[in-house]
Amino acid sequence: MKRTMSLLVILTLSAALVPSAYAASGCSNATMKGNYIFDFKGWYPFVNAQGNLNLSRSAMVNYVGIGTFDGAGNFSTTFTACYNGTCAGNQTNSGTYSINPDCSGSMPLQAGSWLHRDRWP
Would you list the domain boundaries of the chain? Predict the structure, then answer.
């Protein structure tokens, strides 16, 4: 029990110190390089032109895939998109990302045909 608790404390402290180590040395686009998997689940509300929520056109969504970051501010993704249980594989997206010195960042996503409600039954 004592070893388990010690290991848990060490892992917790390590996880807490890693982000601060990056922040102390600063981050940049080069900090984010390589392949990362993602899994997004959520509710996609449909709002009409008048700003009213239309529950019958809203849906549960799930996106699972892999994103590749080049370390120079460009990314590409390949994923499966599911909308109310209907899935479409081999979807793609690409764009740019920006990592700030404090290790925060942004990655604007372009809405492709995979995001539009009229693509799904």
Answer: 27-102
